[in-house]
Amino acid sequence: MERSVIGAIGVGLALLLIFLRVPIGVAMGLVGLGGIAALSSWNAAFGIAKTIPYELIGDWNLSAVPMFLLMGYVASATGLTHGLFASARIFLGHVPGSLASATVLASAFFASASGSSVATAAAFSRISVPEMLKAKYDPALATGCVASAGTLGSLIPPSILMIIFGIMADVSISRLFMAGVVPGILSALVFIGCITIGCMLNPRLAPPVHALYSRAQKRAAAQDVWPLPLLIVGVLGGIFCGAFTATEAGAIGAASACAIAGLRRSLNKDSLRKALVDTAEGTSAIFIIVVGAAIFSRYMSYSQLPTAMSQWLLGSLDSQLTMVLAIAVIYLILGCVLESVSIMLLTMPLLLPLLTQMNVDLVWFGILVIKLLEIGLCTPPVGMNVYVVKSALGERVPLGTIFRGVAWFIAADLSTLGLLIAFPQISLWLPDLLSR
C-alpha cells in the first residue's frame, strides 16, 4: 500500500474519532502513533511519543498560552469586564439597535481580554440577552448578535488560535497579533452597521430605547471600565512597539491584570484561586491538543500525503487566488460539522507545504483561516457559539431562533471575508507599517 494512501486512511480515521466525540488531542495522537508504526515501526512511534511532548511543552512560544489565559481569567474573576455592556449601552444609546450594537462593542473588548470566542458568547448570553429581551428586541436579533459577536475573540488579539497557528506554521505570533487588529475592528464595525441598518429598515426588530444620559453618567461609565482598555492597549502596544515579545506580553498582561485588580481591591484569595484553577485546566486541555496535533503532523510527514496533495493541486489550480478560494470553501464546509480547533489542526499539516510552494503569505492566510473558523462557530449543525447561547438561556429562546438570528451575521462575515481575500493589505498594512 502506498504511503500517501496510509496517510489518507489516517485522516479519515481521525475525523471518525472526532465525530464519535473522542477528545481531539487523543484522537489525533493515537492515529498519529498508529500511522507512524504502520509506516515505520513501533520503536519509532514510541520514540516520537517520548520526545514530542517534551519539545513542545518546553517551547518558549507556547508559554504565551497560560499567560494570556491567566490574564483573561483574572480580568473576568475580579470584575474588570463586568461594566462593559452597561458602559457601551450609555455611549451608544442614541443608535438604532443600541443594545445589540453595545453587545458587539463590549464583546470586542471582552474578547481582547479573554482571547476566547466561547467565553465571550457565554458571558454576554447572561449579561446582554436578558436586557434586550426585556426591551422587546426580536429574540433572533438578541441571541444572534451575542453568538456572532462572540466570534470576535478568535480574531482580535491576543488570540489563542493565533498562538496555535503561529506555532504550527512557524510564523511570528507578534506579527499575527498585529495583522488581526484591523480585520477584528472591521468585523465589529460591519456587525454594528448591519444591526443599525437592519433596525432602521425594520424598527420592530429593536424598539427605540428613549434614554438620555448626562455627561456625568458617561464620565462615570468611562471611569468604571478604563482599566480593561488600558490593560489591552498596554499589552498590545508593547508588542507592536517592540518593547517585548508576544510571549513576554502574556506574562506582563497577567501580572498587570493582578495589579489592577489589587488596586481596585477586587482581587482576593477566592478569585485568584478560581483564575489559577481555570488557567491550569484550560492550559492542560490546549497542550494535550497541541501535542496530539504535533504527533499527527509528524505522521503526515512520514506518509508524504501533503506532498502528493501539493503536486495534485498545483496541477489543478491555475492561480494563488483560485487555491485560496478553494481552501475557503473547504473550510466553510468543514465548519458546519467540526469544531474550529479540530479543523485547524487537521488541515494545516496538509496545507502548509502547498501554501509554501505557492508563495502564499502565511500571516495573511492565518487571518483568513481564523476568520473562516469564526464563521464555523455559528454555522449549523455544530455552531459551537449557538449552543453556548442556548445552554445559557435554557428554554427561553428556541435553538432554531438563534440559528435564524446568526444567519444575517454570517452573511456580514462572508462580506468581510471577501474584503480580506480581495485586499490582503487590510491584514498586512499594520504589521508592515510597524516592522519598518
UniProtKB/TrEMBL annotation:
<feature type="transmembrane region" description="Helical">
    <location>
        <begin position="322"/>
        <end position="355"/>
    </location>
</feature>
<feature type="transmembrane region" description="Helical">
    <location>
        <begin position="104"/>
        <end position="128"/>
    </location>
</feature>
<feature type="transmembrane region" description="Helical">
    <location>
        <begin position="30"/>
        <end position="49"/>
    </location>
</feature>
<keyword id="KW-1133">Transmembrane helix</keyword>
<feature type="transmembrane region" description="Helical">
    <location>
        <begin position="230"/>
        <end position="263"/>
    </location>
</feature>
<dbReference type="InterPro" id="IPR004681">
    <property type="entry name" value="TRAP_DctM"/>
</dbReference>
<dbReference type="GO" id="GO:0005886">
    <property type="term" value="C:plasma membrane"/>
</dbReference>
<feature type="transmembrane region" description="Helical">
    <location>
        <begin position="69"/>
        <end position="92"/>
    </location>
</feature>
<feature type="transmembrane region" description="Helical">
    <location>
        <begin position="6"/>
        <end position="23"/>
    </location>
</feature>
<dbReference type="Pfam" id="PF06808">
    <property type="entry name" value="DctM"/>
</dbReference>
<feature type="transmembrane region" description="Helical">
    <location>
        <begin position="176"/>
        <end position="198"/>
    </location>
</feature>
<feature type="transmembrane region" description="Helical">
    <location>
        <begin position="140"/>
        <end position="164"/>
    </location>
</feature>
<feature type="domain" description="TRAP C4-dicarboxylate transport system permease DctM subunit">
    <location>
        <begin position="12"/>
        <end position="426"/>
    </location>
</feature>
<feature type="transmembrane region" description="Helical">
    <location>
        <begin position="362"/>
        <end position="382"/>
    </location>
</feature>
<keyword id="KW-0812">Transmembrane</keyword>
<keyword id="KW-0813">Transport</keyword>
<feature type="transmembrane region" description="Helical">
    <location>
        <begin position="402"/>
        <end position="430"/>
    </location>
</feature>
<comment type="similarity">
    <text>Belongs to the TRAP transporter large permease family.</text>
</comment>
<keyword id="KW-0997">Cell inner membrane</keyword>
<dbReference type="InterPro" id="IPR010656">
    <property type="entry name" value="DctM"/>
</dbReference>
<keyword id="KW-1003">Cell membrane</keyword>
<comment type="subunit">
    <text>The complex comprises the extracytoplasmic solute receptor protein and the two transmembrane proteins.</text>
</comment>
<keyword id="KW-0472">Membrane</keyword>
<comment type="function">
    <text>Part of the tripartite ATP-independent periplasmic (TRAP) transport system.</text>
</comment>
<feature type="transmembrane region" description="Helical">
    <location>
        <begin position="284"/>
        <end position="302"/>
    </location>
</feature>
<protein>
    <recommendedName>
        <fullName>TRAP transporter large permease protein</fullName>
    </recommendedName>
</protein>
<dbReference type="GO" id="GO:0022857">
    <property type="term" value="F:transmembrane transporter activity"/>
</dbReference>
